[in-house]
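Hi V.,

You were right to ask for the full record rather than a summary. Here it is.
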Amino acid sequence: MQRAGSDSGPYAGEKAMPEISRFFGIIISMYFDEHNPPHFHARYGKDYVAVEIATLRVIEGKFPPRALGLVIEWAAQHRDELMRNWNDARNEQPLSKISPLN
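Predicted structure:
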């Protein structure tokens, strides 16, 4: 199982957020020191969303509709892996890469 590396956020002072998947220009990441509910982050150009894993509901940010549809489709396919990564992040363990959307 491949582990996700750390990449720095795009803004000065932003904490590192390991990238766990990338597809169609969308970057999926998760912070290590995060608040509930369990969620992941997606970036697409200048757009950003946080998506709750259990409900696949956007809890923060805004995305173009087509890109958001791709993120939700991907997350629905990988919900168990996302929860494993969430639990690993909470325990300060390395995160696993997740297959991209095909």
